[in-house]
Amino acid sequence: APDIPVADVQQDLKELQSLAEANGGNRAHGQPGYKASIDFIKGKLDKAGFETKVQEFDEAGGTGYNLIADWPGGSADETVMAGSHLDSVESGPGINDNGSGSAGILEVALAVADAKLEPKKHLRFAWWGAEELGLVGSQHYVDSLGDETKKISTYLNFDMIGSPNAGHFVYDDDAAVQGVFKDYFKEKGIETETSSEVNGRSDHASFAAAGVTVGGTFTGAGDTMTEEQATKWEGKAGEAYDKCYHSECDDISNINEKALDLHTDGIAHAVWQLSS
Ligand code: PHE
Ligand code: CA
Ligand code: ZN
Ligand code: ZN
Ligand code: ZN
Questions:
Q1: Which end of the chain is less crowded, N or C, counting CB atoms within 10 A of the terminal residue's CB?
Q2: Which of 95, 97, 132 to mutate to test ligand 1, by most ligand atoms within 8 A of the CB atom?
Q3: Cα of 114 to ligand 3 centre, how many Å?
Q4: Domains of the chain (ranges plus CATH)?
Q5: What confidence tens digit (pLDDT) does each residue in 145-159 have?
Q6: Per-residue pLDDT at 196
Q7: pLDDT score for 203
Q8: Pseudo-torsion of CA 182, 183, 186, 188, nearest 10°?
Q9: pLDDT in the model for residue 45
Q10: Residue 244's pLDDT band (boundaries 50, 70, 90)?
Q11: Edge-to-edge, what's the strand order for the sheet holding 169-170?
Q12: Which one of the ligands is nearest to 100 CA?
């Protein structure tokens, strides 16, 4: 898999920050900053040759949007998906939560296009709406698929991959998918853990409940880093992984660039490996 330039991911985050600033300070469901974020990501994917579609749904008196992007080719009966929620909470611009995952999978998708990748399996990327209202967009998508969910071999989820006081967590849902990520981090000399913060709390849960194999990585939310973790991850013990979690200060300065780089390259590793 290619090395994704972290500067490109940061550039996307700057754009998401600008879109929040131009739209009342957030990118939340039902707010103009959310739709502007969808349009920005869709524009880049369309230009790169993806087949995109926007799925609309109604929630809490507002229109929600999921963005689905298919890379043409591969066996559609074996689809590998990577997804991230694109909505923020109303209190801030949502750059770590979840501009980070959204920009990470975007740059991996663009790298797939750059490489003119011809994977054996079909590749699909997705940006979910209204995750912060209870995994609403991803649940709507899974419901809309019905029997077609059987064609998804793996769903990979990325929600918060640039936490300032970063942990390195791998979802423990499926042993084989977990192994793909653990191999990657091992090559990089990084120890990983599973996280009790993850369980059922992001969009992979919509897929897991429908029987789809899921996995993902995470750098931590509002929980506190232990002494032991601080030693192995060169972090700050007794501080939250993300002290700006769901706050106004979750802005462009709330990103650990090393973690963002490491986890984005990990997404590329898994996408290349699982789709081949
Ligand atoms: N889904 C949570 C949020 O968006 C955070 C989270 C990310 C939880 C990843 C678990 C795993 O606020
Ligand atoms: Ca990189
Ligand atoms: Zn959140
Ligand atoms: Zn989130
Ligand atoms: Zn590798």
A1: C
A2: 97
A3: 31
A4: 6-275 (3.40.630.10)
A5: 999 999 999 999 999
A6: 81
A7: 98
A8: -110
A9: 99
A10: very high
A11: 51-59, 62-71, 121-128, 75-85, 152-158, 214-218, 169-170
A12: 4
pLDDT tens readout for residues 188-201: 999 999 988 888 89
Helix axes 257-275, 175-187, angle to 10 degrees: 130
The tokens for 20 are 């929040």
For residues 169-177, average pLDDT? 97
Residues 52 and 67: beta-carbon distance below 8 Å: yes
- Ligand 4 center to residue 204 CA distance, Å? 11
Amino acid type, 67: L
Ligand 4 centroid–CA 192 distance in Å is: 20
User: What residue's CA is closest to ligand 1, atom 11?
Assistant: 198
Structure tokens at 228: 């032991």
What pLDDT does 111 receive?
A: 98
Helix, strand, coil distribution of the chain in percent, nearest 5: 40, 20, 35
CB of 217 shorter than 6 A to ligand 1: no
Arithmetic mean of pLDDT, 96-117: 99
Q: Whose CA is nearest to atom 1 of ligand 1?
A: 202
Spatial distance between the Cα atoms of 74 and 84, rounded to a whole number of angstroms? 22
Structure tokens at 135: 């995994």
CB of 218 within 6 A of ligand 1: the answer is yes
> Which residues does the annotation mark as catalytic?
131
Written as one string, the DSSP assignment of 153-190 is: EEEEEES----TT---EE--S-HHHHHHHHHHHHHTT-
Asked whether 52 and 95 are in contact (CB, 8 A), the reply is no
Question: What is the 98 CA–ligand 4 centroid distance (Å)?
Answer: 5
Mutate to test the pocket of ligand 1, among 29, 159, 173 (most ligand atoms within 8 A of CB): 159
